[in-house]
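Worked example 3 (structure in, sequence out).
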């Protein structure tokens, strides 16, 4: 086995080797890493090769942007890899290899449950993806600033308004610049929007029904200085931006991002201040919901070796292998058996272990609407619409009412183009 590291430029130039052009038993696995995932899979799949003589699984490590932009183009052209690690679980469904003929589907049902549906669209309802890392959105809190301010941190069941009020008090009493920040991402605001009553998916169709109450609150917080306004106001279109560095620098009291940031916080905050993860705040609609997500590993129908590809993915899905991967990559497990047994994350400091445990404990609070939205094949278009129109309301180009109307129009256009 060997791991190759490919740039987006190389991919765009067609230098990535497609499935059909490789050796008879060579499998190309396009992989991106949030941390060390590709390296860990490379090592684990060495064992698969030892058990399957003549098979060579080549892990091609690429930037995440290549997964988002280059992979769909390659698949449409019939030049994609045999398998890949992806995040647009429903959006690429038309290209997926159905693993069902080659796996124990009863085991997969028991192990992966609801996440299997994230890879299914319409009558394409096979077994397509192994969710390799489960993520959930949620808040990171600067506990040191709360202590310095002498402000009590809101407890279980606290609302978004409770946290806004408490963090504003912390800013008034300390040198912090901002009470709160949320990543500039349609995915990141989806959980809070659901908590405020947004539906997002009804009868299998995307909708922004009920999005208004959250939009009003969020734009208001950006206008009155509660939110770090530049996170959303300094970018154009649907460009992603996070506020992780501002939190790491001690400028933000409450930062709403997700479990994938734990390693970064652990490494970069160090002894600068004490930080912790708390559950997603509640909204007036009741749910205290974050937004699930993450990444999965899929095979593609265009592979010349469907049985081997299925066998590779099934190998990674086995409880012992999956548990080792979760521990070594410090990712929350989507495998229900591994989650139930618990994971001791390798090399994690007590703060990181506590943070990951807190994120895992918040998973049962995810609203059904949020799970449905994560599996909706049109969610990526809706994420972009959300970001663009909310940003225009924040900078004053549109009123909140007009922004909501434009969101509805944009969604209708996107759905028409997709038909």
């Amino acid at each position: 086995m060997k791991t190759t590291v490919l740039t987006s430029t190389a991919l765009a130039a067609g230098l990535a080797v497609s499935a059909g052009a490789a050796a008879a038993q060579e499998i190309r696995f396009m992989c991106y890493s949030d941390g060390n995932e590709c390296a860990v899979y490379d090592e684990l799949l060495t064992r698969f090769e030892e058990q399957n003589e003549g098979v060579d699984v080549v892990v091609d490590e690429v930037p995440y942007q290549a997964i988002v932009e280059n992979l769909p183009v390659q698949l449409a052209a019939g030049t994609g890899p045999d398998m890949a690690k992806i995040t647009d679980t429903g959006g690429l469904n038309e290209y997926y290899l159905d693993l069902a003929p080659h796996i124990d589907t009863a085991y997969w049902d028991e192990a992966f449950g609801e996440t299997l549906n994230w890879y299914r669209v319409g009558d394409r309802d096979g077994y397509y993806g192994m969710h390799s890392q489960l993520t959930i959105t949620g808040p990171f809190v600067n506990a040191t600033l709360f202590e310095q301010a002498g402000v009590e941190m809101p407890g279980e069941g606290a609302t978004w308004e409770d946290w806004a009020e408490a963090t504003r008090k912390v800013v008034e009493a300390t040198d912090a610049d901002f009470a709160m920040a949320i990543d500039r991402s349609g995915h990141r605001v989806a959980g809070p929007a659901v908590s405020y009553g947004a539906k997002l998916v009804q009868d299998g169709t995307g909708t922004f029904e009920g999005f208004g109450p959250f939009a009003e609150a969020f734009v208001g917080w950006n206008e009155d200085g509660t939110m770090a306004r530049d996170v959303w106001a300094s970018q154009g279109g649907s460009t992603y931006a996070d506020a992780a560095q501002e939190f790491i620098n001690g400028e933000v009291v409450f930062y709403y991002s997700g479990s994938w940031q734990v390693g970064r916080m652990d490494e970069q905050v160090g002894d600068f201040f004490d930080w912790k993860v708390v559950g997603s705040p509640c909204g007036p609609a009741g749910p205290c919901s974050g937004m699930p997500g993450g990444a999965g590993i899929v095979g593609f129908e265009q592979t010349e070796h469907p049985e081997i590809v299925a066998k590779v993915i099934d190998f990674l899905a086995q409880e012992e292998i999956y548990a080792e991967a979760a521990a070594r990559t410090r990712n929350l497990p989507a495998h229900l058996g591994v989650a139930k047994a618990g994971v001791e994350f390798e090399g994690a400091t007590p703060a990181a272990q506590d943070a990951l445990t807190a994120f895992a404990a918040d998973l049962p609070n995810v609203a059904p609407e949020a799970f449905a939205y994560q599996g909706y094949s049109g969610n990526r278009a809706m994420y972009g619409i959300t970001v663009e129109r909310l940003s225009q309301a924040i900078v004053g180009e549109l009123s909140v009412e007009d922004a909501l109307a434009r969101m509805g129009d944009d969604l209708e256009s996107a759905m028409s183009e997709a038909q």
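Notes: Confidence is low (pLDDT under 50) at residues 12-23. The radius of gyration is 22 Å.
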